[in-house]
Amino acid sequence: MRVLAALSGGVDSAVAAARAVDAGHDVVGVHMALSRSRAQHRNGSRGCCSIEDASDARRAADVLGIPYYVWDLSEEFEDTVVADFLSEYAAGRTPNPCVRCNQHIKFDALLDRGLALGFDAVATGHYARIVDVPDAEGGARRELHRAEDAAKDQSYVLAVMGADRLARSMFPLGDAASKDEVRAEAAERGLSVSVKPDSYDICFVADGDTQGFLRERLGAAPGEVVDADGDVVGEHDGAYAYTVGQRRGLGLNRPAADGKPRYVLEVDPAANRVVVGPSELLSVTEISAGEVTWLAEDVPAGEWTEVSVQVRAHGDPVPARVLLQDGRLFTELASPLRGIAPGQSIVVYQGSRVLGQGNIVKAGRGAALSRA
């Protein structure tokens, strides 16, 4: 197959491309330039897609002996991932930009361009597995599964890709036992990125100051911080800088009557108000989600299904049951979860298999969510 290998400049994508070459595919490397600042430099382990990353990707391609190109996707990235990030926070929700980047950039813009140029698939350094399961008609059903290495599993941020994108994707690192194994393999192949630190945090907020980034882009918008009874207990510079479950940086004028810590319970952008309260009010047992991407056509809609769900990229899965109905995903948790914020992704699993995902719209307790 003709395979387009996404080279980020890190060790994972380099080894993934190398494994695609070893498998006999005709591989071409491409680095996605996502920053509008061509002079952007990497800040330690923070950020990605910098000028250093592009150089590292080129060196990896040279070692592998594959053609290498840089594609400028900065406009698409700004108009989709960054714009979505800002609009979601402005609306009082908590987005995951890595999910949006995989959806709009790596498996929309990149794959679509690759297919238009005659490539058959895109290979990335994500830690996840693709399993082809034979069906009754003699064909195969393609499934997305967790990676062999649970500590590095990235299936959570890939669930949004959809069945059509999954059919054109390759994740050569899905069966890697550990990140140490991948680094050792990179060193054996002579790839200098074998010792490069992993990037973390939000790539376009390289200094890690998310609140500062939001304030710079959205501007100051002073308002009140109130308790669950509506009493004013503090002030804020912008409700968008708060997220459900947050404890630190609340800037409260006085402690709670019982002396216990208070947490953000709700962000109300319409009233420009942040509601805080005790931790017990954060616990929810029901979640409803929209913008559903469902990968499991063999799992019938309209019926409750026993599953596990994950609501954070590095969170633990919890037992639950879900109902897919009229394009919405309803979840009843076997035990309460805390700090569930609108805008987060909820990903549904059966064992290691990803069934689908949705964007959380509302969370509550008991019969708080209507399925009408």
From TrEMBL:
InterPro entries for the chain: MnmA-like (IPR004506), MnmA-like_C (IPR046885), MnmA-like_central (IPR046884), MnmA-like_central_sf (IPR023382), Rossmann-like_a/b/a_fold (IPR014729)
GO cellular component: cytoplasm
Residue numbers marked as site, Interaction with tRNA: 126, 344
Localization terms from the record: Cytoplasm
Active site: 101 (nucleophile), 203 (cysteine persulfide intermediate)
Short name of one Pfam family: tRNA_Me_trans
Ranges where the tRNA-specific 2-thiouridylase MnmA-like central domain occurs: 212-277
Stretch list, region Interaction with tRNA: 152-154
Superkingdom in the source lineage: Bacteria
Keyword Nucleotide-binding: yes
EC number: 2.8.1.13
GO MF annotation, one: ATP binding
Biological process annotations from GO: methylation; tRNA wobble position uridine thiolation
Binding site for ATP: 6-13, 32, 125
Keyword vocabulary terms for this entry: ATP-binding, Cytoplasm, Disulfide bond, Methyltransferase, Nucleotide-binding, RNA-binding, Transferase, tRNA processing, tRNA-binding
The reaction(s) this protein catalyses: S-sulfanyl-L-cysteinyl-[protein] + uridine(34) in tRNA + AH2 + ATP = 2-thiouridine(34) in tRNA + L-cysteinyl-[protein] + A + AMP + diphosphate + H(+)
Database matches in SUPFAM superfamilies: Adenine nucleotide alpha hydrolases-like (SSF52402)
Top EC class of this enzyme: transferase
Keyword ATP-binding: yes
NCBIfam families registered for this protein in UniProt: PRK00143.1, trmU
PANTHER family (UniProt xref): MITOCHONDRIAL TRNA-SPECIFIC 2-THIOURIDYLASE 1, TRNA 5-METHYLAMINOMETHYL-2-THIOURIDYLATE -METHYLTRANSFERASE
Family: Belongs to the MnmA/TRMU family.
HAMAP family associated with the record: tRNA_thiouridyl_MnmA
Entry protein name: tRNA-specific 2-thiouridylase MnmA
Record organism: Ruania alba
The gene coding this protein: mnmA
